[in-house]
């Protein structure tokens, strides 16, 4: 049995090694076995203000008053935010806050409940 991984492009099990690359005969995708290891290591871990790892679906609370851009409203300290989604970018939390609607927050201004 082959110990080579399935193709990341089409999930074919018929991959083979050609020099330093792995090749899929079905979709002609070529990749380096180190790419998979680096992708796992480079996966961004998002942490709250206390260093706890955040994941999709977590509940958090705001640790300081946050001004809402474009309005005179403020999200008060202690506001609970349920069911967050993690996204790429500067503001790495996508959520809905009661009374404000959809928002993006920075993880450094929240703590996990």
TrEMBL record:
Annotated ranges, domain Protein YjdM N-terminal: 3-32
Q: Which InterPro entries match?
A: YjdM, YjdM_C, YjdM_N
Gene3D superfamilies given for it? Answer: 2.20.25.10, SH3 Domains
Q: Superkingdom of the source?
A: Bacteria
Matching Pfam families, A to Z? YjdM, Zn_Ribbon_YjdM
The similarity annotation says: Belongs to the YjdM family.
NCBIfam families reported in the protein's UniProt record: phnA (TIGR00686)
Protein name, UniProt field: Protein YjdM
Q: Which organism is it from?
A: Alkalihalophilus pseudofirmus
């Amino acid at each position: 049995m082959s110990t080579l991984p399935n193709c990341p492009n089409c999930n074919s099990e018929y991959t083979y090694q050609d020099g330093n690359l792995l090749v899929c005969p079905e979709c002609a995708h070529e990749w380096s076995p180190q790419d998979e290891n680096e992708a796992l290591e480079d996966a961004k871990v998002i942490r709250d203000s206390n260093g706890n790892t955040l994941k999709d679906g977590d509940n958090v609370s705001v640790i300081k008053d946050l001004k809402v851009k474009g309005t005179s409203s403020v999200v008060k300290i202690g506001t609970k935010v349920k069911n967050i989604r993690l996204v790429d970018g500067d503001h790495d939390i996508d959520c809905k806050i009661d009374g404000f609607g959809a928002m993006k927050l920075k993880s450094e201004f929240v703590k996990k409940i």
